[in-house]
Protein 1
Amino acid sequence: MHLPSFLQRCASALAFGSLLLFTACDPDNEPDPVSEGRFTNVYVVNEGAYGTPNGSVSLYDKVSGKITSLNVFKAANGREMLADVAQSMTIAGDRGYIVANNNSKIVVVSLPDFKSVDTIKSTLSQPRYLVAASTDKAYVSEWIQVPYPSAVAGRVAVVDLKTNKVTKTVAVGRLPEEMLLVNGHLFVTNSGDNTVTVINTSTDAVETTLTVGANPASLVQGSDGRVWVLSNGDTDYTTPANSTKGSVSDFAPTAPYTVRRRDLNFTAGYGSRIRRNAKGTVFYLKTAEGVFRMAPTDASLPVTPFLKRNFYGLDVDPDSDVIYTGVALSYNGPGRMVTYQTGGLPLDSAEVGILPNGFAFY
Amino acid sequence: MLGLLGPAQAALAQQAAFIDSVRVLPAVRVEVERPRRFAVGTRVLTLDSAALASYRTATLADALAARTPLYLKNYGPGQLSSITMRGTSAQHTAVLWNGFNVMLPTLGQNDFALLPVSGATQVEVQPGPASALYGSGAIGGTVLLSSPVRWAQGLRGAAQADAGSFGLRAGSVEAGFSNTRLALRTSATYRTATNDFPYDEPGGARLRQTNAAFWQGSLAQDIAWRVGKAGQIQAAAWLTKADRHIQPAIGTQNDNARQLDQNSRLLLGYEHTTARHESSVRVAWFEDILNYRTNTFQSNSRVQTTQAQVSHTVRFSQATSLRVGAEAQHFAVRMTDYGGFVSENRFAGFALLRYDPTARLRLSATLRQAVLPGRRPPFTPVLGAEWQALATAQHELLLKASAARGYRAPTLNERYYQPGGDPNLQPETSQGYETGLTHNWHGPAHPALKLQTELTGYQQWIDNWVMWWPKPGQSFVSPRNLRQVRTQGLEASSGLRWHNKVSSMQARAAYAYTRAFKTRDAVESVVPTRRQLVYVPLHSAALSLDGTHRAWQAGSTLTFTGYRYTEDAGTNFLPSYLLLDAYVGYTWRQKAPAGAALTLLAQGRNLTNQSYQSYLYRAQPLRSAQLSLRVAWR
């Protein structure tokens, strides 16, 4: 039995020797610096691969025009953020709230150091977006899973930002997405329906439900004071003729609201969104057919795209009106961010994380 | 080459010689020529029943991962395991059961965790393109599952029970009978585990895995019956079923995903063999059910595949044989995501030539033309040559080369999935070359020592590589012929066998260097870099050592998997890992009834307690153990 045991020793020695050799060949991952200032930071929210907690936030520095950290949470905290579908990021005061949709949590970081402060987790169900009413109170739109095949219900959670606890929930329509706070009213788009729920923020109770175009998912307030809602419409894959077109609805932010609805001549599609410049005099409609530009005073909806490109995310820097877009290049690989001047000329481009979906400016 | 003396057989040391020659036929009968005979100049790794002995109640995923340097992307114990051979994707490895492709026609690939080892007695892995022999998907390589007939063995049987860490329970019953005219083999196995193993959250706490339990079973039946002087009827059935919770990624929410797979495979064939002619007609019927659901989603599919193969072989002389044949496949699918019922027919014709001009030179040329609805994949030839450059009493040196074109027909999902499926998708095509040498050394007779070393280099280009990505102006994904990929690499292996009257030993080392990168990507704004493809380790290695001494048997496997990039571009990767497994067993042999034996076997896995991930964020168990008790008689 001497021979086998000798060979076994040789084999293990050889193997462990090769381990050292080969792990030494693994690439290095060096930590990136984290910003210390403000007014120059753009946080790029990268969804990550669905079902995998690799959603991330990349930090773009407006001064140098460079991504200074591909994964700023990891750089600041030395560990992964573990966000499965990082859907959105909202900044309130010196706090950043990163909403991880598919693993039902909101990661709270302090800014600009991006240090982890807390995680809002308990009782949240598939959160989508967070709107802060003040530095003490926020609203979170949520999807409520129900057993298959019933449709996903919707809810808005009221969160105390001092304790980071959910204090109340309000039932809304199906698949609620973006929300807008105007004059003591929270407008919630119910993308699984054709409605906007109006919540009175002094009582946190539903005041009324407005009917808009099918599948509303995002909204802004225009310079005219009215609320403008973009509805995605719906693609019927089996019978394309049965597809629903996208639409733009607008209404006054106070009762009796009175909705005006106009159809686009195409289906805007899932992931469409409406954004505005700082003054609210220009809207950008990001759709499957490209980005359309319009003003609240326009007599009719635009028919020719302003940027004929399919973006994954789009936001406008409120300081400069520069348009920040996210370009998906793969469902499992880095995407790019591309910035455009207000006139539509491309400015800058950089590699970011997987599926760049939105931007937060600080 | 992987013909290792396994633990349970080991005590039956006198069987060792027999294991090497599984096809013992009475001299009067002519052996049917297996397709591999036409694959001259390529490399074949064989895992025979001895090498598979420690994996009797396990799956091919476990056996291949431990015994070869092949990398299987594994989502957790018992979970999805997809293979990558020579830098290609899971859809580029064809898996043939008794000569019929058993991929899931909807996805066009195999989950190796759904292929219990007990379904076949021999597993062969042939790396490299060989579509002319094995049809669609044989681009990165082919895995051949078969159960070669062993005539005149009498009655034999075995029963085994296993228990292990994390609720692992498994069992098997095997029985066989053969005389000179009839051979039967039955094998039934099951395996279950709760898989509530502890794992480390990156930078966080030690947690316990949830939603990873599974149950799986397999029932295999093979019948071979000699009719008259030249006829042989072959019938086989392989039924497998797996009910798995789907292990969620670390840090994600458990959505109670669950998958039921039920695969039925039936085969009937007749072969007529004379000294000069050999005719074969075979039909097979498969049914693949895959039902997946989570809290919020459900997808059910049922595919029925009917296949037929006919071939005729003429042996012009000892040195020359030619086979011509044709095959047809009919798919019938009922699937939620296809919006109902879909059916499709595919055909192929082939010619295989083997010609040995001299005793030292062997040549083969094979051709296949497939016909798909609306699309004609290219003509796929394979050419091969082997030359025995040196042959002395102790040394043999063999030089080998082959060149091949391969193709992969679009899967049913790629053609019919709604939304996105594209009936006009082009087949993927490849062209590749390989060359290598084999050196055999036979040592002195006492102690008997044998050393075999093999070195192979290859290169391949794969074109029209399909990726799911939105077409311009579409908000949903479609399969598109977007990429061109180049792969190249080196495979080296060495095996040493030694035995004397009371002891035996086998050591084997295998290493693979695999380089794979995109040379073209049609997605807007994607500039191909030469970065290694996702989940293809540059380096991988497998070492094994198996030994017996009187009634004892012991062994160990050690596998190294190099770092793997986890995203289509960029620098994120999973670190390399090393896995050490070992076993020790003892066999009590009974004098009466003759041939009865009881074996107790203890196995340890991941003995160095590595915390590692094979696939991103899918936890793997730390150190674990398994105990098996086996009763066998023959």
Protein 2
Amino acid sequence: MKFERYGIGIAKGMALTFKHLFRAPITVQYPEEKLAVSRRIRGNELVWFLDKCTGCATCAKACPQGNIEIVTHVGDENNYVVDKFEVDTGRCMFCGLCVEACPYDALAMGRSYERAQYRRGDVILNKEQLQMSDIRQPSGYARPKIEATLPRQNLLVYWDKKKGGQKLRWLSLSKKRGRGV
Amino acid sequence: MTLLEQFQLWLGGIWPDWAAYIVPGIVGILVVLGFVVISVIVFIWYERRLLGRFQIRLGPNRLGPEGIFQPLATALKILLKEDIVPAMGDKIIHWLAPVIVFVPVLMVFAVVPFGEKAILADLNVGIVYVVAISSVSAVGIYMAGWASNNKYALIAALRTVAQMVSYELPVVLAILGVVLMAGSMSMTQIVTAQTLPFIIFQPLGFVIFFLGTVAEMNRSPFDLLEADSEIVAGYHIEYSGMKFAMFYLGEYGHALAYACIISTLFLGGWQGPFLPPIIWLMIKVVAVFSVIVWMRATLPRLRVDQLMAFAWKGLLPMAIINLFIIAAEVLLLPEITPWIIVAMNFVFAGVLIVLWSKLFTLGGGRVEV
């Protein structure tokens, strides 16, 4: 006589869920805790490097939507001087073709993903707004040199005592959890 | 003499008779209502947090310390919502249904003993009152399903009636075992009769009663009448605003009421060392509720035919046999030491569960699961 039935399966299942009570939750409490995104993320918005750009407009030609508007004039040293470089990120689908097309690495995808705006006009970015700043960092998409400097992606927030995490409380974790990977 | 009667007697010396009779009653009702509503709010929070921990999540933890105010925010949101009655629905019955679901739940608490004297009405047929009153909410759910003029609601209503009627029988038969052993139907005397909790005397009766009540309060894995994946929200699909809140309150109030009844009948009620009686009752109630949440976190929902088969082929015959065993023990072995009866009943419970599980094998037991 096998004791496979008789409620053994239910008991096994109940024991399994009971064990889950003592595991650390996998929830990422988003605004306070953020995971490191992929190093090659095609995040919202582009990052434009003023000194590298020659004004060749290859990016504008590569864009399937025609979102990039670039106006130049000829400068003193027989070069292009960029007068206007505007990207309508409202219509942008973040395909990354402009970044791949740029011959001088003057354009990169952004790493940020919290760039919602209140006005439609605010998503059209001009020359000054597109340059690198604290909140606008370039991602490693099609830019291996940038990628090598970025932190690796993680998929979980780990509880790690050595990195300043605190003890597991019964119902929740403390907000000061350490981060692994 | 209960606390309420003492209050009435004391007030009778000061106030006219009719006021001294009515005012303590109203005070008692308000105390019980406050207790139920506050407990339900705490229970909603507790269930969501505990369910989260069972599923390796956190659960609501934003509003207030550990998210304790989340149910209040939910309640506020629900109260502000528009009240919608379906165009072709029966408006009067649609209005009446939430009340009929909620009020019996509240009435059950009248006979729950929170302490030796802390009981609203010490009826000598207390447990019969509980059985009678708690069945009324099935009518309310049926009315809700019927008046909504919605196919899902109607399916849920029909399922409810089938489920409630089926599971009433094993529950009542399991209660009879307790009544036989306690020798009384009064809730206070059932509690005082438990020198050892009846769960030790009647393990099988406890299992039957527990599963039966979980089915009666329509909680997972018996939550067929609001099965989200099949019939969306079941009987309260057409309800919103305050009326939906009444159903929600009634559902959790039902769970609270039955947790109280299970604690009273099988776990020794308010009895316990050191701590005050009300604390002991609440500890037992929370423990029972935790097990219910644990079941919800683990077990998948039964099919309708499985539900019916479990009631009529599983619980009912076992409850009848359990009743016969208890009756024989009470009648033939009244003077024997309790531990022999305990051992006998555990053996009977094991044998019966193994025998009856044969009925629920696939393909007559030929198919390995």
Protein 3
Amino acid sequence: MSDIRNSNPGGEDYEPQVSVASTDAIGLAAGGSAAPLPGEDKSYSQGQLVARRFFRHRAALSSMIVLGIIIIVAFTSIGIGPIPGWWPNSYTLQYDKIGDGAPTWQYPFGQDTGGKDYFALVMRGTQFSLIIAFAVGIISTVVGTLIGALAGFYRGWVESLLMRLTDVFIVIPLLVVAAVLGKTASGWGIWGLALVLGLVTWTSLARLVRGEVLSLRERDFVLAAQAVGTSPWRIISRHVLPNAVGVIIVSATLSISSAILLETSLSFLGFGVQPPDTSLGTLISEYQAAFTTRPWLFWWPGLMILAIALCVNFIGDGLRDAFDPRQNRSKD
Amino acid sequence: MLKFILRRIGASALVLLGASLLMYVLTINSGDPLKDLRESNVQNKQQLIDQRIALMRLDDPWYERYWDWLRGVGGCFTGNCDLGVTINGVDVLGLTQQAAVSTLRLITVSTVLAIIVGIALGILTAIRQYSGFDYSITFSAFLFFSLPVFWAATLLKEYAAIQYNNWIAVGQYAPWTIVIIAVVTGFLIQAVLGGSRRRRLVTAAAVFAFVTIMLFVFNALDWWRNPMFGIGGVLVVSAAAGVLVTALVAGLRNRRALYAAFTTVVVGIVAYLAFAPLLVNSPSWGLLAGLFVLAVLVSVGIGAAWGGYARKQSMLVTGITGVITSLMVFADLLIAHWASFLGVKSRPISTIGSQTPNFTGGFWEQVLDMATQILLPTILLTLVSVATHSRYTRSSMLETLNQDYVRTARSKGLSEREVIVKHAFRNALIPITTIVAFDFAALIGGAVITEQVFGWKGMGALFQDGLNAVDPAPVMAFFLVTGVAAVLMNLLADIAYAALDPRIRR
């Protein structure tokens, strides 16, 4: 009956899931800091609760700040398109080399073999990789949610068809189908690449959403909506999906981090971003041979990928804890 | 149960068929197979183009070519496989057989290691939630699955392999290195074992002293270049493993299980002594596999014979102990040949290829050669998978540890071991099996990249070269091997799933 009490969209009842005894039951009770329970003096909306939990997750919060800095620096430093940036050097010009091109104050990431400013090059690669990662994340989330929701809600032959399609994509290793499609899309620029990568990475989200929808569609509020003659589309978009938003947002975040790894791997293998465009993976594969003589050409793009993926993963973890606090120590 | 498995096989075969069609169409449309010829300036350009069109049958519609490919693959069931020819007219079947061996070896070793290490770490972190150990493992897990594999591979190649090779030429630890290793080991082990502050200090101090002394002794014996394990080593380690396995599976109170484990170890040692001449003089993979199967059967038999009130438990204990003892024997044989292996190959860990070309040496030296070649790619693939497995195991364990039946189990006075192993872990395993099977496909993708970095002539190279040339035959061969492997893995997971969760076996 708890569904009736919380029938507002997004209003899931978390209380029964978080038992006070949960941490004691594990036999740990790791210094249980008595956090003041929210809701005792003031009531919070679902969104506020999630935001509070997220901002209390220190790793996620600092990751968000670091990622924000990376994004801002990558896009403002060398500018994007016709808009100039604040960084004095260009990624196209070859400058006089200082020594063997090791990092200096003028060229903080060093210079490549031809004397190009490596900071500008890495920032350009970061721009492309970020654009692709976010585009892939958005596309795969939309496709995955749609397919999962349709399969879960309609059941029957729609479900069989869509889930067999998902299985077909799952049987082929992701990197392999992405490589084949990436090669096909190599002439279409980075947006084409982002599109095809988005079209192959939706499978895990589709399964998750389907599972979620399968359980949600049996709930009383869906029954109530059906009883008053709400259209299926409206039930899906207004009643079912808002309740699955936690799963979707977390998965979308994590798909961004896997997208950046996938794109850089493909570019490294030569099936991803093609010249004249560049990406962090292309940079690594281009300068791999220079590792022993000019290690900085190798370190920076890799560290950049690692930093971005790590930040996104931590943000995803923070979001998961915020949306689904069952495994958490604090009870709120 | 059988019906369930057959249904799964049927469904997998259909999915595989659909996926192969998709792959074929995508591959042949991924580019222009004549591109290199069109751009070339040779005299007989047109003739070469015509030749290739005839060879690849580019004038035929795609479905006829796909159908012929499918028929060739179907021939595998009747014994005459035909996977087509490459763009240069080389038979793909031969190429695949060579490549599949090294790639599947890499993937299998990594999967097994990742499952064992990942699940163990996941359980430990779940039991010690919010401890320093949990935080550091969690952070490492995040680090490892954010790691670009191709980048880490190069780092590992440049640092781990080359540094080790330089070091093994001398094979001595400097005193301060020993102190650092001992401090780190002591810190890690006290973090895992936990307890009160006093107990932690004692654990750390004991481990520190033990490691320091052992490393100095090893230095003095020049152990790293002339390692020895010996029957005594096998006995001690296997017996310790027997105690540990008994403690985990049956509990040390179950004396019969403990004695059964000891019997297994002793029988194993005796068998080792009996078979030692054969193993040293005329070993082969067939002999090793046969002896391994024999060892497992005998161990399970010992468990059944000791039996007692919990016969199945004893059989599980002795089975696992038998496997560990066999592995120790194998390790002993390998270690005994390390010195002569170093004589043949002074820089043991190489960074290119899956086997040293023109390597001469006995069977054991060749096994060592393969092991040192596979080491770095395995470490890499395992790290990434361990990260995922440990995270999933941890969250799955936490989920089950919060369930009511675990509280019930505790409240009726079961020991912590029984609660964790039987009630929590067994149920936590259900979602983990699915994840492990899914992760297998990701591992194949990782193998393509690692093979490229480490210069293996494996399936990854077959795929990459094939795709570069828009040549469907090798690409499809790659898909066939990895797809069948993935389907088999999923099938295994399904069977495990059904065994763990009776609700599945409708």
